[in-house]
Write a structure and sequence with these properties.
This protein has helices at 18-25, 61-72, 76-90, 137-146; strands at 2-13, 31-33, 48-54, 96-104, 110-111, 149-156. 28% of the residues lie in helices and 26% in strands. Helix 3 (76-90) packs across helix 4 (137-146).
Length: 158
């Protein structure tokens, strides 16, 4: 099985731009989106988006999330305060999201590694090294402080 995956932390708003979010936090994002930049009516994307992303191959989801959390944890309370403000400005919750995206059988995905690091141990197919992940206590605290939802999308390619 081939697996392609990445994770990102996002602040989104209908009214507040990614540039304004950057200015408020003093943290440069990895990616931004401008509301309505692809389609004006209805606006697509539907929100302005400020994102910190980990697309590093070979890492499990929890390792990708750890990269993001380690980078943003020192700013978690400030991010949470801004997320609460964005929720108020937009009139609905959900400004802050930790997103995981996984695509199974993607042609650019990583192949299962059937080699075993332990002698006399045979690794059987179906035990892909990227399957399975967890959220540690540091990540759970980060989610709480930043008021973030966890959203996991998994797709089959094609």
């Amino acid at each position: 099985m081939l697996i392609s995956q990445y994770a990102y932390f996002q602040l989104a708003s209908v009214r507040v731009t990614a540039a304004e979010i950057t200015a408020r936090l003093g943290i440069d994002p990895d990616e931004v989106s401008v509301r309505g930049s692809r389609l004006a009516q209805p606006p697509r994307p539907a929100t302005h988006r400020w994102q910190v992303v980990c697309r590093e191959p070979g890492l499990t989801v929890d390792e990708q999330i750890k990269h993001i959390v380690d980078r943003l944890s020192p700013h978690a309370e400030r991010i949470g305060a801004l997320a609460a403000e964005l929720d108020r400005i937009d009139g609905e919750p959900g400004a802050s999201v930790l997103q995981v995206v996984r695509v199974f059988e993607h042609p650019d995905g990583e192949q299962e590694d059937l080699t075993s690091p332990v002698e006399d141990f045979e690794k059987l197919p179906g035990q892909h090294q990227l399957l399975g992940w967890r959220l540690d206590s540091q990540t759970l605290e980060f989610l709480r402080l930043t008021r973030a939802e966890l959203d996991v999308d998994e797709y089959a390619y094609g």
